[in-house]
Amino acid sequence: INIEIFPHEYVILFGPSGCGKSTLMNVIAGLEKIATGRVQVAGRDLVSLNDEELSTYHRHEVGFVFQAYNLITTLSVLENIALPPMFDGLSKGKWSRNAHALAERFGIEDMENRIPSELSGGQQQRVGVARALVNNPAIVLADEPSGNLDSKNAEFVLDIFQDLNLKDKKTILLVTHSPDYLGDADRVFYLKDGRIIDEVRNKGRH
Known about the structure:
Elements: E1 10-14, H1 21-29, E2 40-41, E3 44-45, H2 51-60, E4 62-65, H3 77-81, H4 83-87, H5 92-105, H6 121-133, E5 139-143, H7 151-166, E6 171-176, E7 187-192, E8 195-201
Helix pairs in contact: 6-7
């Protein structure tokens, strides 16, 4: 695969299960290593980074939103949102303010003291999106973020990514096997059997 993604662009990786979408996403996220080739993000080659540099990359360069939410079950909503700055050693006052501001933005401020099991799927995914944004990364990666949600919550979450792209100028890379939201993106890459078989640019987007 040879792919180039530009700043502030919204890109979707689309294809059936098992075609390589999530693997490609994980490679760009630095979660999986490649045997050959280069993965260059924001001017750095991920292949050459050591573990500490990769950890910094995960916390600051990119935000990752998972299909399965991946929240810490014993932590509160506020603490889950604040995990990345906690690892950076920020004071409680600072990470608490940042996390609260994101909870307010996504309409979950009334649930800050609850644990994930007390939230609906849509609410848990909003926590996941807030956690991905808490360190203000330029790039947001989302792997099937609406896959476990009903249609109403799926639309709400995908509207968040549209908002992040258009208003916050975040670069969005989203994986999906659903055709419902392909029109949201600047470009859609169609994958099959580990290869890009087509690229479509949406004329309504600039």
